[in-house]
Design a protein that fits this description.
alpha+beta, 12 helices, 3 domains, 434 Repressor (Amino-terminal Domain), 9-stranded mixed beta sheet, 23% strand
Amino acid sequence: MIRLKELRDDRGLTQEKLAKELTLSRSTIAMYETNKSEPDITTLQLIASYFDVSVDFLINNKQENNMNKFKELRKKAGLTQIEFAQKLNVDQSTISKWEQDKAIPDIQMLVQLASFFNVSVDYLMGREQKVDNNVAGVQMERQTVKIPVYGTIPAGVPIEMIEDSYIEDYEDISADLLRGGNKYFALRVKGDSMLPKFESGDILILKQTEDCESGAYCAVSINHTECTFKKVIKKMNGLTLMPLNPDYEPLFFTNREVAELPVTILGVVKEVRRSY
């Protein structure tokens, strides 16, 4: 019954609260959790039903990577943990715990996840070994859109006005990302100023925006004459465009220069795609 405490903690229940829910004594719950006593089959079924897990899951001490299927489906959908956490209105750390089997979603969340991926709850929890090949793949394919990949961004030109001659390719992204009027574009990294994190040839998926958090990786326009990709560090007296490669010097602009040149954020990196 090692997993009883795990399940109880995930639900935010005290031993006393769980005991009341199951019509048991708190000391009985404590003995189950410390392996000083074993529940009979009727009690096992009661606990399994309450937490909506199988009896096998309760009594199996070996961690089963059930939620690896969730991670696999998330990746097929082209979503990062942060992006998917935003869709579910949960913390990114919660997604991470699910994928590592350190926590289990409650039944309402499992239903929501199953609906999104168009699979059964049993499949998500590892109780079904097979899934229809047309389930996860086809639905997600219908929900993608293509965005242009620019080799360079001409300075002083709004993203929407860039000529097709600058487009090198197209990349698929989830159509959900465009909800609420959000706009995305892609940029191919050229040069080595952002090594080792970003390599020449990497495809950056950027959300179009004119502002960013300090520390974000952004495409930036300078004085309507130059566009660059750098880490943006905001300071009280200005901002720094920081290369990651120490062979390159950072560029600092005062607040006045940012406004008058101007120095303009074009987009913030949301995903990096690399071919091997």
